[in-house]
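Researcher: Let's do a round of design. I'm pasting the structure tokens now; please hold your answer until I've finished.
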């Protein structure tokens, strides 16, 4: 649980309010939906700013305290993300088979440096006439077109995947199945 989430939960319980009661005070017409959002906020410490403003108002909380706790949580998540993104991982090639369909392709064992991997990936893309994404690390990727030309180099940022993904009904599905978008 986050510092902000713990604080909000403690303040709600001090006032003997259930999640449903607070959802009503915050202005939700659909109490169950509001209670689910409040539960999520208490667990994660993240939510839309207008919801935080409404909760602070409903619980009569000091806004500076809410903002300060939210910033502490944000800094903690950023530190955790930085540690995660800097962990070494094997380089790999993601091949675009067709729209929204990707396949992993291992790099040859003799390819050990990013420069060798990029040269090999460019040749592979050209030979196979496929777009590819070379994952150098959790932080850096190289995007190569079907002619074997690099068209983009990307660097991961918190919340944004740095590898191919697809979106279904507003949800992102990452090919690699890890927390690239953390």
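Researcher: That's everything. Go ahead.
Model: Designed sequence:
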């Amino acid at each position: 649980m986050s510092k902000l989430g713990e604080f909000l939960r403690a303040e709600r319980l001090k006032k003997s309010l259930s999640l449903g009661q607070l959802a009503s005070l915050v202005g939700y017409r659909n109490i169950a939906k509001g209670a689910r959002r409040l539960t999520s906020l208490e667990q994660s410490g993240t939510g839309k700013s207008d919801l935080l403003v409404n909760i602070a108002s409903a619980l009569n909380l000091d806004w500076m305290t809410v903002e300060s706790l939210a910033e502490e949580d944000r800094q903690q998540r950023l530190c955790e993300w930085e540690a995660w993104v800097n962990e070494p991982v094997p380089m790999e090639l993601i091949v675009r088979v067709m729209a929204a369909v990707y396949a992993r392709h291992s790099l040859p064992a003799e390819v050990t440096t990013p420069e060798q991997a990029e040269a090999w990936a460019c040749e592979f893309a050209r030979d196979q006439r496929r777009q590819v994404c070379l994952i150098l690390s959790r932080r850096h990727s190289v995007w190569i077109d079907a002619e074997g030309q690099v068209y983009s180099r990307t660097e991961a940022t918190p919340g944004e995947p740095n590898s191919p993904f697809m979106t279904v009904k507003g949800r992102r599905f990452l090919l690699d199945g890890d927390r690239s978008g953390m």
